[in-house]
Amino acid sequence: MRFVALENGEPIEIEVQRHGSGYRVRLDDRWLEVDLIDIGRYARSLRLADGTQVSLIHHRDGVMHHISLGDTTFQVEIIDPLSLKRRRVDDEMGSGGVVKALMPGRVVRVLVAKGESVRKGAGLLILEAMKMENEIQAPVDGTVDEILVEAGQTIESGGDLMRIG
User: Fold this and answer.
1) Which portions of the chain are predicted below pLDDT 70?
2) Which of 11, 53, 110, 165 gets the most CB atoms within 10 Å of its CB?
3) What is the Cα Rg of the chain in Å?
4) What is the pLDDT of residue 92?
């Protein structure tokens, strides 16, 4: 998956790939191999390839991520590159409406359930397009009224994914 993180307004390109039981993470031009283990609701243990292990506390509020590594805390806005395209259609959607696929792809997994309340920026589903997994985010605050796709289904560009009211 590819993301853009904004820390103090400065963009950082991030790419995350599954690698064995862990992940390969690219931060701008630097690659890291990491294992990440959940040890609580917000707590994780992060182990780097060189054996260094640190505790990581992560809390998400919409697109804002509050991350503590040791004594350092970061507040980072994570943006899915597809959501940058979606920002152009937010005004058309108003306070609710149909979330559409911005490109053809395959639904990998649905992250929400019908009737669930979502905040703007919350992940709705993972769409694989052009061999990349992209998190489709809620363009508005609302309630998931209807899920129009399921995991494994292919969708055309402009196809309806779900309704948010």
Assistant:
1) 80-96
2) 110
3) 17
4) 41
Q: What 3-state class would DSSP assign to 92?
A: helix
Query: Which residue ranges make up each domain of the chain?
Result: 2-79, 81-164
Backbone φ and ψ for 2, nearest 5 degrees, come out as: -115, 140
What angle is formed at CA 126 by the lines to CA 164 and CA 12, rounded to 5 degrees? 105
Task: Note the CATH architecture for domain 81-164.
Answer: Beta Barrel (2.40)
The CA-CA-CA angle for residues 32, 34, 37, to 5°, reads 155
Calpha distance 53→46 (Å, rounded): 6
Judge contact between 108 and 150, C-beta under 8 A.
no
Q: How many CB atoms sit inside 10 A of residue 72's CB?
A: 7
- In whole angstroms, what is the distance from residue 117 CA to residue 165 CA? 9
Q: What CATH number should be reported for the domain whose range is 2-79?
A: 3.30.700.30
b (16+ CB within 10 A) / e for 93-105 = beeebebbbbeeb
Q: pTM surpassing 0.90?
A: no
* Residue 14: predicted pLDDT: 85
Given its phi and psi angles, is residue 8 left (phi above 0), alpha (psi -120 to 50 degrees) or beta?
left
